[in-house]
Prior knowledge:
Structural class: mainly alpha
Order of helices and strands: HHHHHHHHHHEE
Radius of gyration: 22 Å
Strand content: under 5%
Amino acid sequence: MRSCEGPFQDSFTRYAGRAALLLVLWAAGNARAECVTRTLAHDARQTGRVTWRLLQAPFRGDAEDYALAGGILMGIAALSTLDRSVRHVADSSGGQWAETVSDVGHFYQRTGLTFAVAGAFYAAGLLAAEPSLRRTGQEVVESFCLSALGSQLVKRTLGRNRPVAENGPYHFAGPNWKDVDQSFPSGDTVVAFSLSTVLAAEAKSLPVAVALYSLAAATAFQRLHRDRHWLSDTVGGAVWGTAVGLGVVQAHRSLSDTHSDAALVPGANSITLTLNW
């Protein structure tokens, strides 16, 4: 049996070193550590408000909202008539270009990348005393969690067969946990479009938005090329990911307009008081 003593010691040394560093920083700048704590508490409250608002959103719409949602669902249903023909085209797409696009799309939807991006923005916001960067990091995580939650609920409720099941695009097995019955919507596409939507909304740049949505589209192509989803699955995933991403961004902006919050943010050589009114 392989001993775990080495890995355990390595982990212990690594975490002990980090703990010691934190203690030194705390002793050298107790006030700054307190500011970080207040900032984190402020951001946690903001995330809670946004999450609660988005969870309530489906039940607080008006007639126009429900009509729009119904129209989008009808459009996706109509698009499903192209599922078989698009599957044939996607399966026959060969060459290095298709593999390259698929590889890029597969990498872009990875959960680790999403959280790495969120962490980078949030950490940069703390270090630079820039609330907008911290907010972007929050929005990426919130959008990921909320969009993934919704897509998983729909997937496991409808039980739509994946193309590899060879039962056609209109076979629904109902509630279950089998992977072959988790086709609609495409979860990877949901993740990709939610990430692109948040970053594009915060970047406020057309070239950046085009690049980000191109990466998300590569993810959708990868799901088709690998025969994991129907066209309507990917379109549904793109719509859902985009809607949640926009909802999260809008909720943060709305809360900034309606709530008065204060946060102390440490900088390199200063402490900044941030007020959100």
